[in-house]
């Protein structure tokens, strides 16, 4: 239960973000997913954002690091995504071509 409460409180701080607030609201509404891989070595807690911030508050370089950490944290508690692949093969004057495109569809 402690794991769930700790991650939920971190996510609640991010709801007001213009960058990922809507996604965080969706996660809180649908439920937090437990990570499926990895193990707790006990050496340190997961790296999580400590509070909500903006690029204007942090500056560009610090924002890039904060953005990376926050997005990674949100992804670890998010549901899996489905990525269908569209493939097409064709030839033009005996030259073979292959086109592939991934589509991201979130399970909502």
Briefly say what this structure is.
The chain is 40% helix and 19% strand. It is built from 4 helices and 4 strands; from the N terminus they run ααααββββ.
Describe this structure in words.
The chain has a single domain, classed as Orthogonal Bundle (Topoisomerase I, domain 4). It has 108 residues and is of the alpha+beta class. A two-stranded antiparallel sheet has the order 1-4. A two-stranded antiparallel ribbon has the order 2-3. The protein has four helices and four strands. The model has no long low-confidence stretch (mean pLDDT 83). The chain is elongated. The protein has helices at residues 2-13, 21-30, 55-58, 60-76, and strands spanning 81-82, 85-92, 95-102, 105-106.
Relevant terms:
Topoisomerase I, domain 4, two-stranded antiparallel sheet, 108 residues
The tally of structural domains comes to 1
What is the N-to-C order of secondary-structure elements (H for helix, E for strand)? HHHHEEEE
Low-pLDDT stretches: none
* Mean pLDDT over the full residue set: 83
């Amino acid at each position: 239960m402690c794991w769930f409460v700790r991650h939920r409180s971190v996510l609640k701080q991010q709801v007001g973000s213009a960058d990922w607030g809507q996604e965080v609201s969706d996660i809180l509404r649908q439920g937090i997913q437990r990570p499926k891989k990895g193990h707790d070595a006990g050496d340190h807690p997961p790296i999580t954002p400590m509070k909500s911030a903006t690029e204007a508050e942090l500056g560009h370089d610090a924002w890039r690091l904060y953005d990376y950490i926050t997005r990674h944290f949100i992804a670890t508690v998010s549901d899996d995504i489905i990525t269908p692949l569209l493939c097409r093969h064709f030839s033009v004057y005996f030259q073979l071509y292959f086109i592939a495109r991934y589509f991201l569809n979130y399970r909502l």
